[in-house]
Design goal:
The complex is a heterodimer of chains A (528) and B (376).
Chain A (H helix, E strand, L loop, with lengths): L4 H42 L2 H35 L1 H35 L6 H30 L4 E4 L4 E4 L2 H5 L2 H32 L3 H36 L1 H7 L12 E8 L4 E8 L2 H7 L9 H27 L4 H10 L3 H5 L13 H9 L5 H30 L7 H9 L3 H15 L4 E3 L3 E2 L9 H36 L15 H6 L1
Antiparallel strand pairs in A: 1-2, 3-4, 5-6
Helix pairs in contact in A: 1-2, 1-4, 1-6, 1-17, 2-3, 2-17, 3-4, 4-6, 6-7, 6-15, 7-8, 7-14, 10-11, 10-13, 14-16
Chain B lengths: L3 H31 L1 H4 L3 H11 L3 H18 L1 H10 L1 H21 L5 H31 L3 E3 L5 E3 L9 H25 L2 H32 L1 E6 L14 E7 L2 H5 L5 H16 L5 H22 L2 E3 L9 E2 L7 H28 L6 H7 L4
Antiparallel strand pairs in B: 1-2, 3-4, 5-6
Classes of the chains: A mainly alpha (528), B mainly alpha (376).
Amino acid sequence: MIIDPEVVTLSRLQFALTALYHFLFVPLTLGIVWILAIMEAVYVMTGREVWKRMVQFWGVLFGINFAMGVATGVTMEFQFGMNWAYYAHYVGDVFGTPLAIEGLMAFFLEATLVGLFFMGWNRMSRIAHLLTTWFLALGTNLSALWILIANGWMQNPVGSAFNAQTMRMEVTSFAEVMFNPVAQAKFVHTVSAGYVIGSMFVLSISAWYLLRGRNTDFAKRSMTVAASFGLAAALSVVVLGDESGYAVSENQKMKMAAIEAMWETEPAPASFTLFGLPDVENHTTHYALRIPWVMGLIGTRSIDQPIPGISNLVEDAKGRIHTGLQAYDAMLVLREDKDNAQAKAILAAHDKDMGYALLLKRFMDDPRKATPADIQKAADSTIPNVPVLFWSFRIMVACGFYFILLFSVMFWQASKRQLDKRRWLLKVALWSLPLPWISTELGWIVAEYGRQPWAIEGVLPTALGVSSVTAGQVWTSLGGFVLFYSVLAIIDAVLMVKYAKKGPDGLGLWPPSEPVPPLTNVAAHAGA
Amino acid sequence: MFDYETLRVIWWALLGVLLIGFAVMDGFDFGVAALLRVLGKTEDERLVMLETIEPTWEGNQVWFVLGGGAAFAAWPQLYAVSFSGMYLAIFLVLLALILRPVGFNFRGKVHDPRWRSLWDGVLTASGIVVMLISGVAFGNLFLGAPFQFDNDLRMSWHGSFFELLHPFALVAGLVSLTMLLAHGACWAAYKADHVVADRAVRVARWTTLAYVVVYVAAGIWLAYGVAGYAIVGPVVTDGVSNPLYKQVAHGSSWFASYLEHPSFWLAPVLAFAGAIGVQLTVGKKGLGGFLCSSLMVAGTILSAGFALFPFLLPSRLDPRSSLTVWDASSSKGTLGLMLAMTLIFMPLIIIYTSWVYRVVRGRVTLDHVRGSGHTY
């Protein structure tokens, strides 16, 4: 059956939009929940009321964001079945497992505890509430771990093999799937990015209070926590991002080459293109400003291994399409005659390349009838969008280094107890608020757009994964998402701004009035 | 440890556990939300109702998310075919589920009666949509769905959204709706201030009665008006998961498995016993009424699952494409691993969930919400 390209495009667009939207909220949850955990630990250790109030105030903003994260997360879990049914069938045996474990181990924990975090202040002991907050933090972060194990497998499909009888990938070693080096690197990089977002959020809003001369004690304490946590996170996100880059170069050479706009293989160690204008048609990069050796060191951790360029990788892909076709042919034989020894041997030898034969399915029903021109076309289709990857990556990395600088300076100011001394610094901190979101979204674009044309690297082309739905159906859902998500985004933004502006003073949280209101009063007081 | 056949039966049972967990734990949240304006005449009364579910609904909804995840992992074709085939219906459920977390959180954040009644409407509608569509989808399982597989096991679906609204499926939708409204009312009778609880008792009695009527009607219709499916020829229970390796006949009775296994009758008996129990105990406004409605919910889902067994999702277009317990599961290794994970984590989930319910125990009174000037 020929796949409708419009359905593919619309389904990809919908997935990209809903995933990027979901990830506006997730990283803030991941990061701010640890800041809440730190603040509450200080409260329990010192018994000083202001720290409890800090947890409660930042908790209100956390709550608004958490609701959006949960709401948009359900979409992700549904969409694999709704829009990517063949994908769900083809890899559910492997990919579904981490998602299910995420539910069992992590999401249940965080969702069950979040209600108590808000409503349990007066119902349990300090220690019990602190434990609730800590387990809530643990739950959200474990949740990220399992999602990234699933995602890591899409980038580097280890621990699994194709089964011709069931026409799908099946697990051969779950330990390999779990300890996939790509997944591990992605997990630490991604949660660190979340910690940067959480820290920036607290830092920027606190800076705004200091600029206004409001809530100064409250804001300085919050900023100190955010600056220290943010500095550690920013260092970790860059260092572990480098680890992630190394892992990518091991198994996704094309993605690496596209990020670097490296058209031809260079002699080792390759140089890093700091700036340039990638020219897709002529396979060259204009005005390239190159730093010798750096790319080779990052990508291979050596000075003598070359990093292959795009043109060479396309040639490799052609070779793999040819061997993949042998595997495909053997698979068809096995489907009719499951004991055919010769076909079994061929499939076993070449099943790692069968996905490359499936690249042809976008263009024809029977890949075995492919002409050399078709094969060239399929091989060319393995090149992702070079300029988008090139620029997304560079902006992301530049942001990463900027975060280290900013958090270092703020940390220094906090250590010298001079956080409110330099107004321009506070303004910089305030206006830096959107940057970690931009860099995080770009990070996902590099990771997922850079994975194209594959849904599962080397195994299942994205176009093949779609459901047999009509374009009209996907238009309907896409329109619905755009409409509902836009409305929710506006409400979310309005509420966030409203409560940030009210601040701990406006909410009656700090300085304490008599009697000190419990947390659940927050919104009521806000409206009163 | 277990052979493939046993693992498949265990995972069929676990799918049932998840469905029942969802209907029992999340079902009363939907019921309460749908009855928000019926039982809560004033803002304070609605605050009481919301607070009876507020601290726990989020955890309850994970039963649904986990059900999706477990279906993906253990029954990938069931997940793929049902979610993509019933695309627009699932999309409506999804919208309803998206609006719930934000509805609960955002409703109290602005002090304006129009704002609050808007979110009341959203929460009510989302409760009704999920309850109805879940039932309609279940009804369609018995009717068979219009799908088939090609040799690559790519599924194609040849039906529209409106074809899902077959009269039998609508009756099934009503079973689900009345059952969960009764379940929600039993919860409100147990947890809410007596002013609200007294209304909830009356609503619980009427909805339980309505439930019994539509449940019996659906059963009679199923016996006389809906043809069942049966696997023809030898049934291979530990073969590879490829639906196309079997033959299926359409035209038998869905009650065949009940004749074969008389113990299955315990399920509908449980449902009726639960319904009678609700009538007898809900007036005491204790936990008893809620436990009885939980039995009613569990019995209803079991009775449907038993009738379908071993089918998960039959195809009326191409019966051999039907998904059954024996040919739609994940590999043996995946089922085994997932079982181990479930055995480790499910007890933990039950422990901390019980702890949370213990912390928030007690009736939510009007004085309480007035006194605290509550967020929600």
